[in-house]
């Protein structure tokens, strides 16, 4: 069958980025002579991407050597990047990945039928990705590309069954040694916008390499990586000032510090223009050529880009649609009767067939892909449960007692069942029976930073970001100062007066409310905003959660303390509450403690709930707890809710500040001569009315501190769960 030619796709092939432009590349200082050593012009491939006979051409490599006036030649332009002779990433030993019968099932609750339903997303994918190869995982939207990548990278493991092997060794769930061998760069770069490229690189280098190499070596390494990735001119540019392509390259550069032999990238070209795409894929190709295993998902690449990949793994509807060398894709489809029209982008053509365009029988292609795969393996075979005329490999587990030629597969199936039982039925792969590290000979001996050093580095990084992004901090300080002035003005001089006790009470309540809200809401979104960066850095083993959390607290807590003190100092004096220094200290202490307690709640709520819920539940909780302090006497609370009175940090701090103002045997208040009678002249009367006659300051303070600690532990636990939930 010959497929009709699509005019829109014809246009695609004409939009190739040229491989190089000599005039644009000579940016080295000094005199430079340019010698072109291009083996074949890149553009040539643009017009022969999909010859009518179904064979594809290979892209030529372009390079220009740059010589200085002495004729020393150590720099050349190569596939879009400068290169110095000594500027190569070290070659990596071979790490091959094989996967067998990967299935991914999600469970969801069907409220209508009141039962839990399972849905299989990936239906037994097999394949292998080899060292030195750049592999593209492609397929229509929703086909399961990201899911497969997540499983292979070890990012998802619950609901997964099947086996993943690394150099022939079974990879266990959450394998730490696999994490040492690989890195995962997700679609959203999740970089720190306020750090410059140099700062980001330097911080990542210190975190990843600790003291294992000297500062000079680190500096050289950063220089080299940036040079290799074409970012050497961008060292002092803040990350938010980089283009999309430069951000992608920075994300790769950050991971190249530890030089992992396996790189997983989710849609590294999405959102990039064609020349940035070409640069990005060229870079990955070169990294692969140095012996790495590079696997990335891509969406509709141009024909030029498509040809740069060594291997294609195509997925549709959770099945493998094609796997093998890119150049064999068209002959494979052609054998099935689907001929790519001349000048049509093979990647587009494959996608069109994968969604059944041109009346293509998708099931037939999936079957053929399975057959092709099994023909290449001489393993235990049996009939596939879906395609009953296809003989399928059950497994090729490295069990000594499994006969690879066991045609009825009973032994292998039995072992497979055991494997599932051991993994709780939902694990990707069984643990290495000996519990050995994967490829210990390959894992670099570099030691990452110690926990203390991680904390100090992260603290330094946070301070740097705070210094750059001082606007928010300024707003917080300004808001506290201006609200304090406003409150102080409204309730000016009410503090010492017996006839204005209720006005002062409202000021005190309002102050507590202000400090609780600003404390809580300023951090409620902290982790929500941070989560993508945190996940990426934590998953790629930059640091542990403990030092990270501590480095956040050590910035946020003092900021909130300073904000609270600004508020307290201004408003306390304007309202005339200053009576003795001791009382002021107690007042400030309870204000700050209440605010920090609310902040701890904010961290917990933000880490636990989604953005929409967090911004809604946060204030509701603050109001709920405030009710148990303001004008509410313990005896009036329904016994069912009395426990809330006991655990209310708001009540504890509010009573603390009330007691510091009116309690502790304060002398009579001032009753102006204009007043005939001042009911609250003796402050004890007011305390009695409010049921705060016997405030136990110590107990209240201990309660607040306990709540703060509980919330910190709760936040840590939730973050740990989110980061490690796979
Ligand atoms: N946790 C989950 N719960 C429910 N459905 C899921 C879950 N994870 C994946 N899916 C479904 O599995 C299918 C494959 O998702 P996946 O993100 O892997 O697709 P994709 O090929 O990467 O798509 P795209 O190219 O649009 O990103 C989709 O239909 C998605 O809705």
From TrEMBL:
<dbReference type="InterPro" id="IPR017871">
    <property type="entry name" value="ABC_transporter-like_CS"/>
</dbReference>
<dbReference type="Pfam" id="PF00005">
    <property type="entry name" value="ABC_tran"/>
</dbReference>
<dbReference type="InterPro" id="IPR003439">
    <property type="entry name" value="ABC_transporter-like_ATP-bd"/>
</dbReference>
<feature type="transmembrane region" description="Helical">
    <location>
        <begin position="584"/>
        <end position="606"/>
    </location>
</feature>
<dbReference type="GO" id="GO:0016887">
    <property type="term" value="F:ATP hydrolysis activity"/>
</dbReference>
<keyword id="KW-0547">Nucleotide-binding</keyword>
<keyword id="KW-0812">Transmembrane</keyword>
<keyword id="KW-0472">Membrane</keyword>
<keyword id="KW-1133">Transmembrane helix</keyword>
<feature type="domain" description="ABC transporter">
    <location>
        <begin position="106"/>
        <end position="342"/>
    </location>
</feature>
<keyword id="KW-0813">Transport</keyword>
<comment type="similarity">
    <text>Belongs to the ABC transporter superfamily. ABCG family. Eye pigment precursor importer (TC 3.A.1.204) subfamily.</text>
</comment>
<dbReference type="InterPro" id="IPR003593">
    <property type="entry name" value="AAA+_ATPase"/>
</dbReference>
<dbReference type="InterPro" id="IPR050352">
    <property type="entry name" value="ABCG_transporters"/>
</dbReference>
<feature type="transmembrane region" description="Helical">
    <location>
        <begin position="613"/>
        <end position="635"/>
    </location>
</feature>
<keyword id="KW-0067">ATP-binding</keyword>
<feature type="transmembrane region" description="Helical">
    <location>
        <begin position="701"/>
        <end position="721"/>
    </location>
</feature>
<feature type="transmembrane region" description="Helical">
    <location>
        <begin position="470"/>
        <end position="491"/>
    </location>
</feature>
<dbReference type="Pfam" id="PF01061">
    <property type="entry name" value="ABC2_membrane"/>
</dbReference>
<dbReference type="GO" id="GO:0005524">
    <property type="term" value="F:ATP binding"/>
</dbReference>
<dbReference type="GO" id="GO:0005886">
    <property type="term" value="C:plasma membrane"/>
</dbReference>
<protein>
    <recommendedName>
        <fullName>ABC transporter domain-containing protein</fullName>
    </recommendedName>
</protein>
<dbReference type="GO" id="GO:0140359">
    <property type="term" value="F:ABC-type transporter activity"/>
</dbReference>
<dbReference type="InterPro" id="IPR027417">
    <property type="entry name" value="P-loop_NTPase"/>
</dbReference>
<dbReference type="InterPro" id="IPR043926">
    <property type="entry name" value="ABCG_dom"/>
</dbReference>
<feature type="transmembrane region" description="Helical">
    <location>
        <begin position="548"/>
        <end position="572"/>
    </location>
</feature>
<feature type="transmembrane region" description="Helical">
    <location>
        <begin position="506"/>
        <end position="527"/>
    </location>
</feature>
<dbReference type="InterPro" id="IPR013525">
    <property type="entry name" value="ABC2_TM"/>
</dbReference>
<feature type="compositionally biased region" description="Polar residues">
    <location>
        <begin position="1"/>
        <end position="22"/>
    </location>
</feature>
<feature type="region of interest" description="Disordered">
    <location>
        <begin position="1"/>
        <end position="28"/>
    </location>
</feature>
<dbReference type="Pfam" id="PF19055">
    <property type="entry name" value="ABC2_membrane_7"/>
</dbReference>
């Amino acid at each position: 069958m010959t497929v009709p030619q699509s005019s829109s796709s014809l246009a695609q092939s004409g939009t190739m980025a040229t491989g190089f432009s000599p005039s644009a590349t000579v940016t080295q200082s000094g005199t430079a002579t340019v010698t072109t050593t291009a083996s074949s012009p890149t553009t040539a491939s643009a017009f022969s991407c999909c010859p009518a006979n179904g064979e594809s051409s290979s892209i030529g490599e372009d390079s220009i050597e740059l010589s200085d006036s002495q004729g020393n030649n150590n720099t050349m332009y190569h596939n879009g990047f400068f290169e110095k002779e000594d500027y190569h990433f070290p070659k990596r030993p071979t790490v091959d990945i094989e996967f067998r019968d990967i299935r991914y099932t999600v469970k969801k609750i069907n409220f209508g039928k009141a039962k839990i339903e399972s849905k299989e997303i990936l239906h037994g994918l097999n394949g292998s990705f080899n060292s030195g190869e750049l592999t593209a995982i492609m397929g229509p939207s929703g086909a399961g590309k990201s899911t497969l990548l997540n499983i292979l990278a070890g990012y998802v493991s619950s609901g997964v069954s099947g086996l993943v092997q690394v150099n022939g060794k079974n990879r266990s769930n959450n394998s730490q040694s696999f994490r040492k061998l690989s890195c995962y760069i997700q679609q959203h770069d999740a970089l720190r916008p306020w750090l410059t490229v140099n700062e980001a690189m330097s911080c990542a280098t210190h975190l990843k390499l600790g003291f294992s190499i000297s500062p000079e070596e680190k500096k050289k390494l950063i220089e080299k990586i940036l040079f290799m990735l074409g970012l050497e001119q961008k060292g002092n540019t803040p990350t938010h000032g980089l283009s999309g392509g430069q951000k992608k390259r920075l994300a790769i550069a950050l991971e190249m510090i530890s030089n992992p032999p396996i790189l997983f990238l989710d849609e590294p070209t999405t959102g990039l223009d064609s020349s940035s795409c070409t640069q990005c894929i060229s870079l990955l190709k070169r990294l692969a050529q140095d012996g790495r295993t590079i696997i990335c998902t891509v969406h509709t690449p141009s024909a030029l880009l498509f040809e740069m990949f060594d291997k294609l793994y195509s997925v549709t509807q959770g099945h493998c649609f094609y796997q093998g060398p890119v150049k064999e894709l068209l002959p494979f489809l052609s054998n099935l009767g689907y001929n790519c029209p001349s000048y049509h982008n093979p990647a587009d053509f494959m996608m069109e067939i994968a969604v059944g365009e041109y009346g293509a029988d998708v099931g037939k292609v999936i079957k053929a892909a399975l057959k092709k795969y099994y023909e290449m393996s001489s393993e235990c075979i049996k009939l596939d449960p879906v395609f009953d005329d296809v003989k399928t490999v059950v497994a090729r587990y490295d069990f000594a007692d499994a006969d690879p030629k066991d045609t009825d597969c009973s032994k292998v199936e039995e072992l497979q069942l055991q494997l599932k039982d051991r993994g709780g039925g939902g694990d990707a792969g069984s643990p290495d029976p000996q519990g050995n590290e994967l490829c210990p000979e390959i894992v670099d001996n570099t030691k990452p930073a110690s926990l203390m050093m991680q904390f100090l580095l992260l603290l330094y990084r946070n301070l740097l970001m705070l210094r750059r992004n001082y606007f928010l901090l300024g707003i917080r300080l300004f808001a506290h100062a201006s609200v304090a002035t406003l409150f102080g003005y409204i309730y000016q001089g009410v503090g010492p007066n017996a006839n204005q006790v209720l006005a002062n009470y409202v000021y005190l309540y309002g102050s507590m409310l202000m400090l609780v809200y600003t404390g809580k809401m300023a951090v409620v979104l902290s982790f929500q905003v941070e989560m993508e960066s945190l996940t990426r850095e934590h998953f790629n083993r930059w640091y542990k959660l403990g030092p990270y959390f501590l480095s956040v607290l050590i910035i946020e807590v003092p900021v909130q303390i300073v904000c609270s003190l600004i508020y307290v100092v201004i408003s306390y004096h304007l309202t005339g509450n200053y009576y003795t220094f001791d009382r002021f200290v107690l007042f400030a202490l309870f204000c700050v403690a209440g605010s920090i307690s609310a902040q701890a709640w904010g961290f917990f709520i933000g880490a636990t709930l989604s953005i929409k819920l967090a911004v809604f539940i946060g204030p509701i909780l603050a109001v709920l707890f405030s009710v148990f302090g303001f004008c509410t006497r313990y005896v009036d609370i329904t016994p069912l809710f009395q426990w809330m009175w006991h655990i209310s940090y708001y009540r504890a701090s509010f009573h603390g500040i009330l007691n510091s103002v009116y309690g502790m045997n304060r002398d009579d208040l001032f009753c102006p001569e204009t007043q005939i009678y001042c009911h609250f002249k003796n402050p004890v009367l007011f305390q009695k009315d409010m049921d705060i006659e016997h405030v136990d300051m110590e107990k209240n303070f201990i309660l607040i501190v306990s709540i703060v600690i509980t919330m910190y532990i709760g936040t840590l636990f939730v973050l740990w769960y989110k980061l490690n939930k796979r």
